[in-house]
Design a protein that fits this description.
The protein is 29% helix and 32% strand. Strand 5 and strand 6 form a beta hairpin.
Amino acid sequence: IKNARYRAAMSIQQKIAHEMAREKIGGELKLLIDQPLIARTEADAPDVDTRVILAKPAPVGEFVTRQVTGARGYDLLA
């Protein structure tokens, strides 16, 4: 029963996360570059929040503004 509840909760959470990601498509975000092609929004923590996968590399440690072009799983594309 415990595993079934966990799977049900994770399924609901995944749907919520995907809907939130879809709502960001087309918008612009200020991003902090963690790796040349990986960033996070300025408000996100690196270990627990959504990653942003970049189409073009950017310098690590810099802030950039990019338009969100899509979503894949829990990640955004920009």
